[in-house]
Amino acid sequence: MIRPAYRVSGKPALSWSVPALGAALLLALIVLSIKPEAVAPYDPTRIVARPLSRPSADHPLGTNDIGQDLLSELVWGTRMSLGVGIAVATVATALGTIVGIVSGYFSGWAGALLMRIVDLTLVLPFLPLVILLSAYLGPSLQNVILVLMLVSWAGPARLIRSRVMVLNGAAYVDAARALGASHIRIMARHIWPGVRNIAVLQFVLVAGVSILAEASLSFLGLGDTTAKSWGTMLYFARASGAFLGDSWLWWVLPVGAMISLTVLSLVMIGYGLESARTTE
Questions:
Q1: Fewest C-beta atoms under 10 Å: which of 180, 190, 249, 254?
Q2: Quick check: 86 and 50 in contact, CB under 8 A?
Q3: What is the pTM of this model?
């Protein structure tokens, strides 16, 4: 006989344990990004040992090609990589939410024009587009953030618009119009609460994609090579030939693990938000 899954408050245990674990991982990463000096054994900009030293008690992940401690670089890179993801997700989700609400609420030419811009942005392949724009604007962390913001807002806008079009015909929205409520008041008081969960979910997903995209662009040399991020660690690992020897085990693999762990925590949170939204 198959035993039923344990349930808490009528919901499967998995439905709350997965996002809770993701939130705990993300919280730990945020704390690490705020106080990296509490964990990092060295200043990541200082030369502390021979170049390309193997892992030891003093340097658990060894050193890079100029003698900087890789563990310290990895810890300090959390701040930059996570910061890029949060910054891009904040602006892109805010812009996508505004465009989605406005285009879904107003069915005239303004809404149609906004959707044509969204469709044009979505039809272009994401990674080739960000590589092309970043190469055109020049290697810079600011340019990477700007490019990711410009191409990440359209997805949230499309999803939010579809929800707004459903809410726009709700009885309580029609009642608010009949009572003379302004468009701004209706969108703020009646439409926004209905799309808030979608906006939060999109924020989480965009943050994960942005972290991966920043690492990819920095790996290609399109980011700021002077900044300590996971992407620049991969860039210098490639430039110094770490992929060709056994140093990739303690240089490249931990960076990939940190990126994967961060994105996984965001995906787990997104899973919980999506489950909560579908059960409403």
A1: 180
A2: no
A3: 0.85
